[in-house]
Input
Amino acid sequence: MAKWLKSEDFITFEVKDRIAYITMNRPEKRNALSPELIQEVHDAMLEADDLTSVHVIVLQGAGQDFCAGYDLGFGANPANQADTEGKYRSRIGTFDDDIWTMQRKMGKMLIIPEIHKPVIAKIQGRALAGGAELALCCDIVIAADDAQIGHPGARGIGSPPVNYWFYHVGPQWAKRLLLTGDSVTGKDAARIGMVLDAVPAAELNAEVEALAKRIAILDPEISAAQKRIVNVAMDLSGAKMAQGFALEADARAHLSQGPGRQKWRADVKEHGVRQAIRIRDAQYGSDPVRIRYLED
Output
């Protein structure tokens, strides 16, 4: 019996050749992040970090996508709202309750930089919103060159509560992407440093496996030292503190009363979440970011 991982309803967990493969397994939902899926990813990370047979971890998604974002249907389900007797906090009813709720959820995602063993994210298809946040928590990200990476939720819903954008792409690209919610292809993500490398989709599995096997040669005690010293350097530039502020910024954005936010609420009420997203995104068009000076 596993020590940390108590269920595999939404993921699969496999150890092979000193590599732990954690696979988000909701392909019919494009691996959207439900609370249950986030919990199982958290537990699987601890399981892999504790197992002496594991030297490196690969986080991946089943099906066509890595992860298309948070499960927006979860919040719309009355069963997932606060209890009717008012014994506990509301989910997002007040500024402080919103922060408290996200601290519980996002703390589970932030286990990835905290564990000692290196984690590689393998991105195919979409890595959007929470999917992008999850990937950028990882130590190394490799993408298919036609993958789509971005945070469309920044277009009026809120601000990424797990926010490593600056630490991957620098201030200007972080602002460029978050101020528009635009996405980049895997190929361009590699060009701006968001991911380590991008390869043809057909070569993605082999590329990630080859790197994972190479990293797995190193003793875990040494790889832990390498990972943690780089993370300390990031913390010295505020990475961990920034995550706390990101939660508050997202909660503050949820309370926005601007015209765009008001229209979003009205569209959700009238048309539902999926159609409201289509209405919102239609203003921006469908083209990914174009990086002119890097064009072939």
Summary: The chain is about 45% helix and 15% strand. The mean pLDDT is 91.
